[in-house]
Each structure stands twice: as C-alpha cells, then as structure tokens.
Protein 1
Amino acid sequence: MNVQAFNRHGVWAIYKLEMGRATRTLMQSLLTPVITTSLYFVVFGAAIGSRMSEVHGVPYGAFIVPGLIMLTLFTESLSNASFGIYFPKFTSTIYEILSAPVSSLEIVLAYVGAATTKSIALGLIILITAAFYIPIQIQHPIWMVGFLVLTAATFSLFGFIIGIWANSFEQLQFIPMLVMTPLTFLGGAFYSIDMLPPAWRTVTLFNPVVYLISGFRWSFYSNSDVSVATSLAATLGFFLAGLAVVVWIFRTGYRLKT
C-alpha cells in the first residue's frame, strides 16, 4: 500500500501566498493594533484604571493586557482564515487547489498555519505596545506561548469553517462582528467575573470565551476566574471540535464542490 508523501512544497506555496497578502498591507497590519491598543489604554487604563486600582492584586492596566491580546487573537484569526479560504471560493480558484496534488490536511495546514502566524504576530505586537504603557510580568512564559498558539490555531480553524460556510461577504462578517466580539467583551476581557453578581457570574460561565481568557491571564499573573486545568481542557476541546468539523467538510465536500 502506497502512502502519499507529505507535499511540503504545496503547503509552503499556499502558505506563502496567504502570508503575501499580509505583507502587501504591512503598514496597516502593524499600525492598526498599535493604535487600537493605545486607545484601549487611554480609555480603559486611564479613565477606568484611575478609579479601579487593582484586580486580584494586579494593577488594572496590566490586568487588561491578556484580554486585549485575546480580543485581537479571536477577531484576527477568524477574519484572516475565513477570508483566506472564502476568496478562492468566491473567485472559483479553489478548484485549482482542490485538483492540485495537495491533500485536505495539507490545505488546512497551509491556510490555518498562515492565519495562525499572522494572529500570533499581532498578539506579540500588542504585548510589546502594552509594555510601553505599563510594566508587564509573565510568570509562566511557556504556558503563555502555548495558550497563544493553541487559541490562534483554534480560531483559525473556526474561521476556515466560516469561510467555507459563507455565501457572501456579509455572512463572512456576521459571526466575528455579531457573535465573537460580544462574547469577548462579556467574557472577562476587561474585568474579573468575580466582580459580577452571583446570578450573572453563573450565566457568564456558559460563555466559552471566559475559559480562554482566564487561562491566558493565568499565564501572566498566576490568578484566574476558573482553574487553569479547566481552561486548558476547554481550549483543547474547542481545537479538536474545529479540527473534526474541518475533516468532515473535506470528506463530504460540503460547499467546496458546488
């Protein structure tokens, strides 16, 4: 039985194509997160932070940094991966990729890998920008990198699924704009859920974003709204769920061959 060799050249070609899109708009890609982060620190750090000195023993300005990074990671991973696969579908060039000697796994690796790379780069830019405003301490750097990569890959998979599902640019923006952004703001990005009334705290625990932000914040300050084990399990669960759906899409040809 012959096993097809891994086509690294095909993966690299698609990966370079996707990364080339980012380099063509390099200034906007770099400038936007810097300006956005600065504005968040002006509004949240200065205005609210002056009235709220610490959260769980962490200065408020430093407390919101993991939330800012996660907010960017969610939105950028979704938008980069969804547009990356939707545009070839929209222009019908997806058939050239599907007919090429590249397996389904290799296509996913290329598109999701490119989206993950761009999201991680933006997350690090936000981290560096935040360091100019307030001292930042990362107590568990390996865990921080692990959560960063895993979350970026997970939402890139979800973005890939959205890009295949969408039939228009409006649908492409629907989930990131009307679902993910509210979930992120209500998921403890800029506050601790312990500050909420008990009833609302219970409701908030049904928000999956809480577990992602909480685990990432733990890697900075060793405190979180939920246990790090629960956060890691939830993040791995979301990743495996996204991977399972993508595998199903390629096995069935859902919205790829029609």
Protein 2
Amino acid sequence: MTEQRFTHLDDSGRAQMVDVTDKDTTQRTATAQARVRMQPATLEMILGGEHPKGDVLATARIAGIQAAKKTWDLIPLCHPLLLTGVTVTIEPEGADALCVQATCKLKGTTGVEMEALTAASVASLTLYDMCKAVDRGMVIESVCLLEKSGGRSGQFRRED
C-alpha cells in the first residue's frame, strides 16, 4: 500500500508550492458545483429578469470566469495557470435554488480543480451579493468537486 501524504508539505511539515517541473503535460479538466438556496420569490425575480440590479445570472457567470483566472492570486500555493476554457452555468433547481456548475480546462502540468471550485464559489457569492437586499437568508451550500480528468491521479467522479 502506497503511503499518501499532503503534497503541499515538505518533509519537515512546512508549506510549499508543489514542484510540477517534471510532470507530464496533459489535457486536464475539472467541474465543480455549488447550490444557492433562496426564497422562491427571489428565484422568480431572478429568472423573470425583474431584479433591479439587472441580469443577475450573467453577472454571476462573468464573476465565476474571472475568479477561475485569479485562483492563483487568492489561494497561496496554487500555480498561475493558462486556462484554455472556463464555463459557468447556472440553472434553477426546484422552486428555491440555483445550481452553479463551473468547468475549467487546460493543457498543462497541474490540475484545475481549485479553479473550478473557486469559479463555482465566487459565482455563488455574486448571486448572494446581488440579491441580498431582497433575501439576506440565502444559503450557499454543497460546494464540491464533481469530476476531474487528466494528470497522474487520473479520473475522479463524485458518487452521490
């Protein structure tokens, strides 16, 4: 059995940026998700385009894309990445929630899981920010990695 360890710690337990110099360049993709629960009236306002701040969904999608590109600037040990694709989708889920999904892609030596998670999180935070005047009780929940591919660790798919 192979011993697993935290890759962001050196042999003395100090934080380090992982050296990816010798890793193979591969196509890498990751998809993350978050859910934003709100009052049904808030969801109706968003979907009906009746929010006084404008197109809430478009703003949240753009915020998610920007966040993916800035992940290395937000999370101390992340590498700056040349993302080749970022998509953020926001779909209604029942009468009281929006499901945010973010997918990031690149061809490189390190994965894009953190970029996808950051995109989904910031898009959700943007939804909250734009709607807090009408619904301060919104809840951002279930932020998680859905799937990733590429790299040495191979495929991952969340089984729920």
Protein 3
Amino acid sequence: MTPVTSFKGKTVAVFGLGGSGLASCHALKAGGAEVIACDDTLAKMAEAARAGFITADLRTVSWANFAALVLTPGVPLTHPQPHWTVVAAKQAGVEVIGDIELFCRERKRHAPDAPFVAITGTNGKSTTTALVAHLMREAGYDTQMGGNIGTAILSLEPPATGRVHVIEMSSYQIDLTPSLDPSVGILLNVTEDHIDRHGSIEHYAAVKERLVAGVQRNGTAIVGVDDHWCAAIADRVAQAGKNVVRVSVKHPVADGICLEEGDTIVRVDSGARSRIASINEIGSLRGLHNAQNAACASAAVLALGVSHEMLQQGLRSFPGLAHRMEQIGRQGNVLFVNDSKGTNADAAARALSSFKDIFWIAGGKPKTGGIESLREFFPRIRKAYLIGEAAQEFAATLGDVPHEISKTLEEAVPHAARDARASGVGEPVVLLSPACASFDQFPNFEKRGDRFREVANALPGGLTPP
C-alpha cells in the first residue's frame, strides 16, 4: 500500500467505494487523514463501515471541513452532467481529484525521481501496460503495475528510487489527475469513444493529451502518430519543449520509431536507421495493432535504460493478456485463440486481420452496426460458428460465407475444431472474437473466455502449449 501523507490531519471525502475507492480510504487513513466514505449503494457503505471507516450521506453533511473529494472515475465529472458530489464540492470550493492524483502527490513529496510510466489510448492500453511491466521485470527492475488494468494504484508499493510504476490510465482517471507528471508517458491512439462522458471528440482528445503533455522536463512523451488527433498532439507537446518520440507502424518517420518489413521495430534519428527489435513469430504480438503496442512499449523501456538485448528477450517471452488474442493451445496444427475481449466489431477486426484461415466463433449480445464493417475480412473466414442472440443477424450479414448457427460455445468449439483439422490448410485458427457483448449468456467477457478455454481443453486429446 502507498500511505497518502499529503492530507495528514485533514478530512477527506471519498465517493465511490469499489476497489480503488476503498484502497483510497485505506491509504488516506494510513497517512493520517480522517476519511468520510460514501457510495450510492448501501452494501458498499456497509462494507466500508465494517472496514472501520466513517460513512455518511454526503448530501446531509457540511463540506466546510473537507480538504478534498476523492472521486471514483466511474461517475461523471463533466458530462452528460456533473455528479451531485462534484456540484457540492465546487460550491464549497473543495478540489475534486482521483486516486492517481493522490499517488502523484506522494511521489512528488517522497521520490520525485522514481520511474513512473503512464499509458493511455483508446485501444491497446492494457496490452501495452502489461508489456511494459513484463519488459521491466524481465530486465530485473522492481516493477509495480496497476491503475485501469486492475489493481488500484494505492494498493501498490509506494514510489521509491529504483522502483518502476507502470500505470494504465483511462480518460476518466486522467480527468481526475491535475498534477499528472510521469517520467514516461505513452499515448497510443485516439478514436471516437466515451463521448457521452466527454461531450465531444475534441474534449476527449484534449483529456488524453494531458497525459503526454504532463511528462517531466527530463522525461519522454511517446505518441503513436497514425491518427490525426495524435499527430497534432505530438506536434504541440514537442513545441512545448518536451522530448517526444513519434511512433508509426503505418508510415516511415523522419525521427522516431517505425515498423519495417512488417515485423522489425526501427529507430530513425535524423535519417539514420537502427534496428531496435523484431516481433517476427511472437504469437502474443500478432497484428498491426500489437505492433504499435510493442513499438511504444519498446520506446518506453529503452528510455528507462533497458538494453536492446533484454528488450528482445522480453518481447519473446511476453505471454499476452488473457482474453486478448490469447493463444490457449494447439491441437496438431490447429491454433486456438481466445479473444473474448473482442466485444465489438472494431475489436474483432484486429483479431481477424491477424490470421488467414479462420474458423470464427462469433456472436452474443449484439452491438449497434453488427459486423457489416468486417466485410473486408470475410475472405479470411473458412467458416463461422454463430452463438447467442446475434446468431441470426450475423448469419444474414455473412451471406455466402460458410457458417452454422451453433447457439453455444459447447457446440461451436468442437465443430470448429473438427472442421479446422479437416481443412488441410497450413495453420488453421479457431478464433473466439465475438464482436458482441457477453451478457446474453455470460456475466462478462472474462467468463466467456474462460468457458471457451475449458471447452477447448476438454476436446478429445486436449491441447498442447502454443
């Protein structure tokens, strides 16, 4: 845990008592603050009370003595309208911050030179966060990983010289971190997302920009410049005097990092090229989207002093994330890939673009637009196995693409495995990338991916490691 000493002797309101909220309560109390905890859910309030915290309905108390409101990122700060706690805080002149802001203040007070890598982007931030943390650990560094990827930042060990914090940040978390100042900041990409919470794509991009604009003067801002939002952001951050590394996996760059021959990460310095690493035949980093993740992660760890040799070794040993292009095993020459996190067409496109002979398991609770946008990948699909509520809709869109209505994973997986084995192609892939939410048959995409893994491993003869 990271004790929060910056509010010692003061009273802090905490709203939202999920994982990060309760971690904030514990960290503030450990640092000497008095905490008043609140949540819209009575069960969460009761849990906080059992943990020894004062709980109260913040609508009924005076805000005069609050030094800050620590807000969960799950509630609106600005759009579609500010949460009632935000309105109350502003009326009382109380600052509204999040748990990562508390961490930043502790780092500044106690270990301002401790390495801090902050990572954001519309897509790829979890994989990039996990990859940076893996590379740093493989290179022998004391590495703490958390934030939006799962572990609340204040549950991690505190910042210290030689200890690296690798933190995934959503736009909501950035919004609540006004003094964000990583030593390395990564902005992967910006595409339209979360407009309901930010009001416009312009505001959403501006929030993302703050992560790289805030890097320390001697730090490094790494920006993927393959979309026009990020290309403009890189220019502005560079004009502000920060060290910017531009990363492209689609185009050559005059200075920065790019991809050559589809699998070689190259640094370009005033026209001079030098090879950084290769991602050739690294199954956990298939696809152009993962090439971007790997290139940005490589730039980050090189900035922190990792050698080229350790970088290459770490890339090759990266296992990937569960449910994100996760290679769960083989049966003969058939590869089984769990991409249950592919909950919409855009996400499924990344998986479909990464393989050629695909036995595709898709369906679930449909999203707006269905799979029409995936039509360019239909030639890669040997056969589709459709499950859940979207099965009939997807069948209509697939048209002449071979498909069957399998209804459930228990039926789809053995049928896809049978057909893949009989196909005669070099490396057939049984791919679960549903392009749908899971909620018709599963409580979340993790449970869906776990079930896919269980059914695949239960096939006659089982699976061998990938």
Protein 4
Amino acid sequence: MKKIGLLLLGILAVIILGLVVDPEINPSHSSPYLVLKTEREAPAPGPEELVQRVILYGDAGHSSTDPWQASLAKIAERASIDPGKTAVIALGDNIYYRGYPEKEDGEAEFDQGQLESISYLDAQLQIARVSGAPMFLVPGNHDWYASELEGQGQHIAAYAKEHQVNTSLQPWRSGQLPLPRSVQLPGVSLVFLDSEWMMHASEEHYDSAMTALDTEIERIRSVSPDQLILVSAHHPMETMGQHAGYLSNFSYWFFIKIIYSIFDVDQDIDHPTYMRFINSIDEIFSKSRRIIYAAGHEHSLQVFGSPDGKAPEYKLVSGAGNTSKLSGVWHTANTRFALSQEGFMELQITASGVHISIYDIHNDAPVAAFWLDI
C-alpha cells in the first residue's frame, strides 16, 4: 500500500509539472551528430576488399510485416547485396512488451493478441528469408519478461527449419544455461551475451558466465591474435539516452525515476546491478584488444570511442529499430556519433580495417560513414 501511495503521489507530481513547468533538459539529436577524433572519413571498401559485413539493429519488437517495417526492409536490402559475406544481428527486445506468449490453460491455439506479438518476431526473421544471410538474435529485458526464452528459441528454430534459413537465438540452448557463446566468421569472431540473464543470475551462475566470457576471449586470442571480436548483447556499456538519465522532457524523466526507484528497476545504467555487469565485462575486455561491443536497449543510434584506448575500443548502441520507440539522445566527450531516428549500423570488415556506416530510413545513403581506429 505504501508503494502504491508513493506511485500515485509521483503521478500527481508529474501531471502538475507537465502542466506548469515541463522544461527541456537538452535537445535531442534528431539530426546526425558527428565528432570524429582518430577515425577517418574515407571511402568505404569495395566489394573485392570486403571480408565480412555485419548489420546491427535492435529493439524492433513492435514491427509490422504488412507494410514491412522500413528499417527491416532496408536491412534485408543491404544484406541481399552479398549474403554469403553478411551476418545480421538483432540486439534484443525482439517481442514487446512481454516476450513470447504462452498459450492459455487448456487452449490449443494462440489468441489474436498473442499472434500479433509473435508477428513482431516474424517481421524480423523475414530478413533471413528474403536476404539469405545468416541471422542471430540476442534476448533483451522485454524478451525475458515472459519469464523464459524457450518459446521464442523454439519458434526461431522452427522458422529456420521451415524456411531453410540460418537463424538462431543466441546464446540460448534448450535446457542449458545461456552462457556466452561465439561464432567464428571470416575476419571476425562474434560473441553473444544474454545480458538480462547475466544481470539477474545467481552468484554461482554469474561467476560461471563471466568465467566463460573470459575463457572464450582468451581462446579466440590464442588462435587468432589479431582477430576482431564483436561482442553483442542487449544492454549498452555506455549511453547518453534515457537509460543514463537523459530525457529531453523533464516530466517524463521525473516519472521514470519515480517508477524505477519505487520498484527497484535495474534497467538504468546507474543501478548497482547494471554497474556490476558493466564493470565485470569491462575488466575482462581490458585484458585484450580489438574488441567492439554492440548493444540495443537505448532507442537511438550511438557510437562511443574509448577514452583511454583500451578495449573495447568502440561501444555501439543500435536500438532504433522502430520509429514508435525512439527516445532522445545527447552526447558525451566519448561520443563519435548520435542520432534519434529509426535505423541501423553496418560494419564492413576488411584485411586492413573496419568501416562503419550508419543508416536511417529517410536517406538512401548512410547518414554517417567512417573508418574506426581499431
């Protein structure tokens, strides 16, 4: 009762602030913000130079199939250029709001609302079917609100079998702990984390996950000392969006903070549970080199460089898979790029470097493109 009372008091305060004050903390980058340091703006590699392309998007779990969500259609178009050298990674929150549904007791079929939720996932899986490129999906917090991933993992596996495509939920395996796993591609090792599970795991399982991550990175380094490592998860290590306390609207910020503080929600980067996760993986990464960390969760597009040159040399946030979910974004001294528009990121890996292109749905050409210093 006390929490409900506090919640009602908070909502009342928000309404009053919304009517009377409602100031802006900072404007959001609705047009591209680009500040490069050691990165180079030079032409993208030609087809003959390309070793591997990786397309990154996230938080598209409310996407339509008809008409096809604009960002997903554009991703499929990009992946179709050379599917044999392309991988697509979905960075979590694959189904809003509560993950893959369960059939009601005694029901043989899903109801209409449940089928609609599943259609949000199918809209994304269609990328693999249209393009022929392999596709990997990692889970986010909304996927875990279903309390388990079995339904989603089995649905993706069944879709892959039915349509003869290479797509999977990573690092999920039925009946196993979702410990970090890797997939080796030409020029890049993909490492997948289930960050939501890791953040809420028991101490024993948390330690096992971190040991597995450390061991896997050491194994990759022992086999391929100069191999690029791309770690994909849902939760970003760095952000200047709403999960770092930034919102352009003060009333909304106040409302979010009231809700999160009352119910101890740990989806913001300053929460102790979240910070423990960041500090743990940062310590593991810092022992290596040539690591890029990619995440969603924040509904914007952001690129951060390393302030000290240590791994991960770049932290990417690509969670702008749906216009209806976009949130405000600002910048820090580490920011190389920031944009609040529906879109995605594309890494082109060559023998000599890594080129990044950032696309939105309003322009055919990338809104920013440059060579990473890695």
